[in-house]
Write a structure and sequence with these properties.
Family: Belongs to the peptidase U62 family.
Protein name: Peptidase U62 modulator of DNA gyrase
Shape: globular
Largest sheet: 6 strands, antiparallel
Number of strands: 19
Strand order of the largest sheet: 3-2-1-4-5-6
Strand content: 35-45%
Pfam family, one: PmbA_TldD_3rd
Helix content: 10-25%
Organism: Sphingobium cloacae
GO molecular function: metallopeptidase activity
Radius of gyration: 24 Å
Distance between the termini: 53 Å
Length: about 450
Amino acid sequence: MLSLEEAQSRAQDLVTAARRAGADAADAIYACNASTTVSVRLGELEDVERSEGEEIGLRVFIGRRSASISGSDMNPATLGTLVDRCIAMAREAPEDPYAGLAPEDRLLRKRPPHLDLTDDEEEPEPAALRERALTVEEAARTVPGITNSEGGGASHGRSQVALATSHGFAGAYAGTSHSTWASVLAGTGADMQRDHASHSARHLEDLDHAEEVGQRAGHRAVARLNPVRIESGVLPIIFDPRIGSSLVGHLIGGIVGPAIARRSSFLLDSLGAALFDSAVTIIDDPLRPRGLRSRPFDGEGLAVHRSALIEAGVLTGWLLDSASARQLGLEPTGHASRGGSGAPGAGVSNVHMEPGVLSPGDLMADVKRGLYVTELIGMGVNGVTGDYSRGAAGFLIENGAVTQAVSEITIAGNLKDMFRALTPASDLSYRYAINVPTLRVDGMTVAGG
């Protein structure tokens, strides 16, 4: 793995070489990921894995023609060959009126903000990861009713990104990650139920204790025992925070610039419209210290900032990289995302829905009969029409209280209708890349077994 300084220098050298070889403009991105993972099962070591990979990608422009290429060999001679091939490819590519680097006047020029993304403590030894993996699984297996285990694990990783462009941007940043997880089974035979728990953090001191993660996994699995079948009908649905974030994910998929430019989104004509109740605000914050998706600049070198995707229920704008912005006659928004090869796309960073005023208990207090959903199955969502149909499991709500486990059900609706009927509870916590409180959506169709 190159140091940050070496990575940035390598990207800049590649851009300089491309310009000397005849490119009108170019950018290069370096990405590296290294991780160590230890997994156990039934108290025995199952696997120790160390992975490390690095990639550098080059994109060149000749007029309105462009091409991109990537490689994993950092040898200067090899990178010289990469430049020649990319230039040759660009000369044969079709013209694209929207191709080009990001607007020069929008580039991040000042020192990147410090986001505290790297843990300065020494990398955990495999023995320490093994101990944490054993602890999390043992904590899950000691929960009464747990009969088997799919395993527990712990990991540590480090990633680095460097970006350079021919019109003056150069930057790099790194991040670390620590994770713990367990998956266990309760019951026996055909009545077995499975559930899991996990936690990830940038810094080890922010990671949940392994015992807590294991206990959550065990109690979740036991709670799912003896599920009942329910009749079909139209019911209010309460989404657990760990799966309610998927609803925000569908919103994001509908407002990225490439989908709007292709006219392939269910939210195509919704700019400035009230999609949610006025109590709903959804924030994208790439500058959150220690955030799982925090970054000091976007995939094209633009400055990033905290913004409201939904403000008091209203859709405020699209998520735009430079190409989709040009196609739509708009300005890029600092949401470009980039891999090692290919053109940038658009995406978000740390997203959360602001909490409401009701506790989860109060949110369901008037529900005579409904569902508390803790698991979603399948991907039955149409991003063009917004039609939504997914398998689900969770618990029956009767007279405002969570009662029996339920499984083998399907919940269905249309995302626009679901957004309008959504009410957030007050229990927001920041644990994932997308965070929501407990959510209530009235009027969904439930198909029982």
